[in-house]
Each structure stands twice: as structure tokens, then as C-alpha cells.
Amino acid sequence: MNLQEKNRKVTRRLVLVAVGMFGFGFALWPLYTVLCEVTGLGGRAIQVSEDNTGAVASDRIVSIRFDASVNSSLPWEFKAKEKVSEFNLGVPSTAYYVAKNVGNDAIIGQATYNVTPPEASLYFVKTECFCFTEQLLQADESQEMPVYFYIKPDLPEHIKDITLSYTFYRHGYDPSDRSHL
Amino acid sequence: MSTEVIHPDTHHVDDGHDHGDHKPSNFLDRWLFTTNHKDIGTLYLIFSLTMFFIGGSMAMVIRAELFMPGLQLVEPDFFNQMTTMHALIMVFGAVMPAWVGFANWLIPMMIGAPDMALPRMNNWSFWILPFAFTMLLSTLFMDSGGPAAGWTLYPPLVLQTGTSFAFVVFAVHMMGVSSIMGSINIIATIFNMRAPGMRLLRMPMFVWTWLITAFLLIAVMPVLAGAVTMLLTDHFFSTNFFNAAGGGDPVMFQHIFWFFGHPEVYIMILPAFGVISEILPTFSRKPLFGYGSMVYATATIAFLSFIVWAHHMFTVGMPLQGELYFMYATMLISVPTGVKVFNWVSTMWQGSMTFETPMLFAIGFVVLFTIGGLSGLMLAITAADFQYHDTYFVVAHFHYVLVPGSVFALMAATYYWLPKFTGNMYSEKWGKIHFWSSAIFVNVLFFPQHYLGLAGMPRRIPDYSPQFADFNMISSLGGFAFGATQLIFVGVVLHCAYRSKVKATPEVWEGSRGLEWTLDSPPAYHSFNTPPVVTHNALSRAD
Questions:
Q1: Which residues in chain A are contacts of B256 at CB distance < 8 A?
Q2: Looking at the structure, do residues A32 and A49 belong to the same domain, yes or no?
Q3: Is the ipTM of this complex over 0.95?
């Protein structure tokens, strides 16, 4: 093989590596998403269930803190009715948030959620939640927003406190839009 | 020592153009269309020196604003544009192209090759850069201003850059393409163009460190390109890769970015390790201590650089096991790095040392880079990092490894090989003045920043609490002096190239070893047209 062919061969292979790594950069997105779903990392691997069949009541009690925040693009007030409550594992329960539109127009909001410690999200089962759908509030309208959930009884022993956090965004929120600033 | 080497000029028979150096006489042919590794190396070095001063002048704006508490000179948004552009220009415009410039000049001469393996692509990989940086710098003059979210480009903040963001992304793409082409060229050259007898484990350390750096570049620059492309589509095409409201995750950007970003910091320092491993043996008149362990330590550092990325993001909320893993993995890097520092010190041990300017910069590198490495170990302690994170302690840390680290190594390399490149000796007196003032002022500039960080001063903020005033004033004064000192460097280089009357010998230095020193100073425009015979004596190592 002469020098030119050898150089071409090395070049071809290295270009393939570079193209492959470009693809790998994009592949990291789904890879991380799957990793987080499996391990609970990121605290968003909350389980969704149609009914309470998995709920087996237990004596163990955990304390749940309900956190609420609103993205600056959305003129809403949003808070939990009870900031901290104690719950028995495996018992279907309800928690209430309240949202109020303090802007001048009707706005659709969409909430994202997160559980801390992240590991606990694998044991957090929601049967119904305001975060599953878009929420429409008229100007000055206030609305109670319930979360129906239970905690799986096999929650690891070392977890005594759980924080459930919601953030409301304007529907279709675009972080590159600076008009509200 | 050059007796066994077949000199190209005397064996110039069948290539059909044996009239001296035959450089193209036309300016455009010589520089715009050049495929000569020495010319392209020179272009890279001039370009990076220019960028060093542009990025440096932005640092002067930053230090001037931070001279006193309160807002005096610039608006906060412009301040943030300065910190962002300073970093992007220094990383991608100054340090990286400077190393590629030295690679172009030196690798063919060190392995006995006539030129780089892919000379036309070499021309491209350089000439992309001026366009990329013109585009990046032009964003400062646009209505929406330059990027202001830091060089790490974290969303969602970076998505608030206006339409100029597209220029930033395309500039990063072009820099990436340039780096990848340069790296492919370097790998092909080292794999295919070595002179007979130049086995891989006989190559000079600079060639070894660049080979490993080139692989790092090919592995991670495309990942950065992917990450900024996702930012681009999030910004302009309503995708939601990193938009939490749309189901994306801004923290994921940090993971992808630092998968690139951590190897990137080794891309900037590994060639420096190579240069120091060339210079210390010369001025100690001893072979490099532990050549083999140097090669393996470099490869180990490169491997570890891929598995420690999350130590840049300890505070984002990782599970404890993750924090511990990234802490221990990061600390592991100090083992191969310690091997290197040990070998450098052992190389000097009982050597008959002399202290010409390249040696001074090399010793300065060993001492000051080690301080930067030590503060890196402190930052690796995850519990402590929660205090240090995003403070001036981090700024002090990475400036210690980059300025008296990479930049000092670049200065050392310039003083060491400039007589070879130009054929003239530089002024030793002014070189020493440049070294001592740089070494003093770089510490005045960056050492107080450790204290500022430990006391809690946050980075990337144009204003600060009055309690930080004294150390900031000292740091700024050191900064202005360090900046002014670099003008001496330009003077020394220009004097050496155009005015110096002292001609350099082929060996230049008494203790120099390696094929590049068997060529004339300056070397012929086309050197090693016939492969040299690699002799024991011409290699920089003893065994």
C-alpha cells in the first residue's frame, strides 16, 4: 500500500469516528433519559397508575413536603395548601395545591414535577394529577388542584422525608423569548 | 551529531525543482494557498498570538471593572459578554491553535517527515479559523450583543442570547471542524510518515502528547458540536432538548457539555506536558527520566478525562453515590499527573542545569502548574466543592493551570524553538525580563483570587461586596502588569525574527537532542525530502 492510500485509509476511519461521535452527542439525550427512567436519577421517574391496585397499606410513615414555584413567564400565584404532611405508605392519599391567575388574560399553564431524593420517585405512584394535563385559568380565577397518589410500601428504609416539587410554566414556553423580561 | 543524517539539499535529484528553497514568491501563493507545514505553523502561531491579545484585552476590561466595588466602566450585560468571549477566544482562539501551530512546525521535523500527511487539508484547517473568529467577534457589534452566559453556554440562560446566537453556534462548529481536520492530519502524519527506525516508543514526548491530544479532539469536538446544535434548534426551531417546560432537561446539557469540556482541558495541557518533557532534559543535560512512564501517564490521563465530567456539576443534585464516584475518579488523575511531576523533578536531579529563558519558563510551569493541580484536588472534594463552587477559587484554580500552565509552556516552546524557526537567537536579556515579570505578576494576578473565592466572592459578577475590595485591587494591578508584560514577548519575537544579528547553530542548545536539531537553523523550506537515518544520539532519550 503506498503512502497516499495509507493516508486516505487513516483519514476515512477518523472521519467516521468524528461523525460517529457527533451522533453520540445526540444519542446522549435518549441515553440519559432512559438512565433516569430506570434509576430515578433526576427525580422524574414518577410512576403513573390507573387505579390503586398496588396500594397495600403499611404502618410506616413518611413526611412529604410540597413545594411550588412558578416560572417568571407566567403571572400566576401557586402554592401548596399544606406545606408538610405525614402519610402512611401504601395508603391512597390526596394533596391540594392552589393556583391563581393574577394576570389580565386567560392563560394556559403546564406544570412539571420532580421528587427529592430522586430514588424515591420510583416509589411515588400518581393516579391523577393536575400536572398530567394543561390547566386554563381565566383572569383572577383561582382553582384548587389535587394530586392523587400513594407511596409504594417497599420504599427503601433510609428514606424518611420526600419533597414533591412542581413548577408551572406558560404553555408553549420558549426560554429564548425575552419579551416578558 | 548530524553526520549520519542525509541532508536533503545534497540529495536533491529527481524531484525536478532543485533551485534552493523554492518558496512561492507571490504573497498570496505563499500564505493563502500554502501547503507547507512550516508556513501553516507560522500562520497558526501568528493567529493565536493575535487572539491572545484580543482575549487579553477583554480580560483587562474585566479586571478594570473589578478594580473597585460598584459599577464604574461597563454595563453588567457587557461585562458578562466580556467574560464569555474572553474564555471562548482564549480556549479556542489562542491556546488550541497555538498548540496546532507548534504541532505543524515540529511534528514533521521531529519524526523525519517531509511535511504533514494531508497538506491541502492542513491549509483548510487553518484558514477556517480567521472566518470563525471574525464571526464570533462580530456578535459584539450586533444589536442583541455577544453571548453572555459564560463559555459553558448553559441553558436556559444562553438561550436568551438574541439572534446573534446563531453566529456563536456556527463559529463553534467551524472551530470544531478546524480542530478535527487538524487532528486527523496529525494522526495520519504520525502513523504513516515516521522515518525508518522512528518506532512509536522512540518518538519525542511532544509527538506522543500530541498524538493522544489529537485522539481526544476527534472524540470530543463532535460532541460539543452536537450540544451547540441542540441549543441552536432549541433557540430557533422550537425543539425542547433542554427546555424543562417542554419535557427537556437543562441539566442534561451540562452532562453533554462536560463530556466534551473535561477532555478539552487536557487538550490544552497535554501538549504542554510534551513541551516541558522536551525542554527540561536539554537544559539539565540528562535524558528524560522515565520516558515510558511519561507515555503511559499521558494515556492514562487522557482515558480518565472521559470519566470525571460531573465534578464540574457537583451542586446540580446528584445522588451521593454519584458524588463519591466522581470525587474518587477525579482524585485518581493526580496519580498519573504526580508521576509526570516526579519525572520532571527527577530529570533535573543532579543534572548540570543552566537557566536560559525556555528553562525558566519550564521550571515556572512545573512549580505553578502544580499549585493549580493542588487547588484542583481541593475542588475535587465534593463536600468542600459546595463552598467553592462558582467562586473565585475556581477562577484561580483554572487560571493557574492555564496561564502559568499552558501559556507558560507555550512561551517556553517559543523561546526554545524560535531560534530553530528563524535562524536567529532571541535576546536572552529581554527573555529573562519577560519571564521574571510574567512569573511575578501572574501570581499577583491570580493568587489573591484564591482568598476571594474562599471568602465567598462569586464569579461572573461585575460588582462585589466592599470586603473584597483590597484583594481585587491587587489582582487587577497584577493583571494590568501581566498584560503589559506580554508586549515584551512580542518585542522579543519580532526582534528575533527580523533584527537579531546572532545566528543560531543547527543544534541551538548545547544539550538538545532530536531530529529537528539536525536540520539547519532555519531549516530549508522543504526538509527531510529523503528520510533521515534515526540515530541513537539524535533521540531525546537514552535507552
A1: 25, 28-29
A2: no
A3: no
